[in-house]
């Protein structure tokens, strides 16, 4: 069973799978930038944007 699994893993096109993963990640980022703020995903470690007080304007 182990040899069958190793043979299967060696036959995979790893360059294509890596490229597909990077493409999906870029599409997810582009989609998150495209949608409105209510539907946008908060990224890990991102800062909350505070509103400016009216007396500053």
Strand content: under 5%
Order of helices and strands: HH
The overall pLDDT average reads 81
Main sheet?
none
**What multimeric state do the chains show?**
single chain
Query: What is the gyration radius calculated from CA atoms?
Result: 21 Å
- Give the total of beta strands: 0
Spans of at least 5 consecutive residues with low confidence: none
Structural class by SSE content: mainly alpha
Globally, the shape reads rod-shaped
Q: Tally the helices: what do you get? A: 2
N/C terminus separation: 70 Å
Overall helicity: 40-55%
Q: What would you say this structure looks like, in words?
A:
The chain is mainly α and 57 residues long. The chain has a domain at 2-34. Helices cover 54% and strands 0% of the residues. The termini are far apart.
Descriptive labels:
mainly alpha; rod-shaped; 57 residues; 54% helix
How does the SSE layout of this entry go?
Layout: H1 2-11, H2 14-34
In short:
The protein is mainly alpha-helical. The chain has two helices and no strands. The N and C termini lie far apart (70 Å).
């Amino acid at each position: 069973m182990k040899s069958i699994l190793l043979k299967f893993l060696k036959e995979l096109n790893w360059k294509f799978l890596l490229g597909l993963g990077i493409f999906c990640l870029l599409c997810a980022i582009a989609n998150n930038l495209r949608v409105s703020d209510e539907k946008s995903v908060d990224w890990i470690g991102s800062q909350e944007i505070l509103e400016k007080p009216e007396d500053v304007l």
